[in-house]
Amino acid sequence: MEITSKLSVRAIKNGIFIAKHTTPARLIRRIQQAEGHEPCFQTDLREVCPKGPDECEWAEDCKNSLIADWRR
Questions:
Q1: What domain range includes position 52?
Q2: In angstroms, rounded to a whole number, what is the distance separating the alpha carbons of residues 58 and 20?
Q3: Which value, to the nearest 10 degrees, does the dihedral of the CA atoms of residues 6, 7, 9, 11 take?
Q4: pTM > 0.90: yes or no
Q5: The total number of structural domains that make up the chain
């Protein structure tokens, strides 16, 4: 996943500074936090998250991301 212009615009609208080495996952968590949500994108919380695409716009990207071998 890369930082898209749509994601960048949304971050800027929320007053978020995008550093050169900011990862998309970290940026999404900062957007979630700025918009009053739990900053949970691609964290351990995804394993117990009951939300689907109807409740969270990033649910599919979050749940379908790679999981380390030791966690499988």
A1: 5-71
A2: 22
A3: 160
A4: no
A5: 1
